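Inputs:
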Amino acid sequence: HHGIRQVLRQLGIQDHNPAFSTGLQWGGEGNTNTRTISSPTDGKRIATVALATADDYEQVVRKAEEAFKTWRLVPAPKRGEIVRQIGNKLREYKDDLGKLVSYEMGKILQEGLGEVQEMIDICDFAVGLSRQLHGLTMHSERPAHRMYEQYHPLGLVGIISAFNFPVAVWSWNAMLAAVCGDVSIWKPSEKTPLVAVAVQHIIKDVLAENELPEGIFNVIIGDAEIGAKMAADMRVPLVSATGSTRMGKKVGEVVGARLGKALLELGGNNAIILTEHADLDIAIRAVLFGAVGTAGQRCTTTRRLIIHDSIYDDVKQRLLAAYPKLPIGHPLQDGNLVGPLIDTDAVQSFTKALEAVQAEGGTLLTGGQVLSGAGYETGTYVQPALVEAKNEYHTVQEETFAPILYLIKYSGAVENAIDLQNGVRQGLSSSIFTLNMREAEAFLSATGSDCGIANVNIGTSGAEIGGAFGGEKETGGGRESGSDAWKIYMRRQTNTINYSTQLPLAQGIKFDI
Ligand code: NAD
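Outputs:
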């Protein structure tokens, strides 16, 4: 079984795993509510996790509050040093972690390793950032006054993560939060808690080696209920939630009702535009990676292909040639490019969406089968589907978290393609393939793509950590990872200092008694 037992041992995963960790301690081992985690790759049971109770949650929050009092006093570059050590430990365990991501979630090993690399990269980024939490200084309008701004640690950051990036998205949040002086409470997806437990073992070692207190990095295993507790909790000033738009609307509403900060990273419905000036050789490769990579389970997966009518048939033929040849199978086996969907519910959504889109008038060109037979006994492997459809179809307007690519035709100017691209409720990632400078610039202009990510001659998925990641509209508006995304993890303060003997008022107001 691909040496998975040894991987689990290396990473400290036991047969029965505890429900929470406050950094140095584990807890909730004896909880009666448990969840069995099986691999979507072969259906085998991996291990069990205990689920946290309301009391466990209280304990974690109290430990986190306590730790914050210490952690916020540690100078930011010293906090960066801890993150540097975490990054180094992640390097040591990269292979094992990559395999566990792959086995628990189902993405191919290359992508599992890529996800761990993303954690390492964000650690490096955060280390540098720990010396660059800059505010500005301003010129005061009053004599002998100084004005500047500071960024202070915010407090407890709740991190709710999705199954499809079971560790990378947590690290984007947790490492930035850590150098910003915050403490974090991570509630991983209930579908992929084991890799979170594995990462927490690594974190725990680093905290212990540095004699740091409990509660700086916490993890709590549970389902939506624990996430909802965090959303409603006044003691958690920032809740960063990644997942479906349905979840984000709930979390956003609850956090909003108490005027907390919500960082939402929700669903996408990403399109690639292929104009008549596209370099089709690179475009087709980008489309394939974007549409079938991670078996269509990335928030940035390419779901719509908007193709100029002059090249439509050529593109369709090239995709029809490639799709039946996709190597689908166990993600830990070399050479496979498409693994399973996370569970049979996801397979059902896939099948239902294909039925629905055909009922609306779409044409299934290839794929769509649930695979069976040797190696496919789990019923979680599907043949990626290509469908000719119209943008306005209800099914096309929704994000189905599975490998379905809708081919949509446009004619005339690139503006028509941009209208189609923008004509959905989601706004995460988008790209255009063109060698025509006017088309490319139109796509990137104020009247171009309305997404948080807009690429030229690159697909929709596979972002680098250096940029701010996130999207508009129903994608939730949050930004994480690079650029100045760190600012949401801090509270901002404007300071004005008077070193004169007078008390001049701003705007020249006179108020003398
Ligand atoms: P999901 O919404 O089912 O679950 C995500 C997380 O939210 C889980 O940890 C879950 O327990 C928690 N949750 C669910 N309901 C909640 C509630 N009412 N209150 C608090 N927490 C709640 O999503 P999923 O199936 O795990 O992931 C797939 C979805 O995530 C897709 O829509 C995908 O596009 C999206 N996603 C977005 C990004 C991004 O950065 N924009 C990244 C990855 C995934």
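Remarks. The mean pLDDT is 98. The two ends are 84 Å apart (CA to CA).
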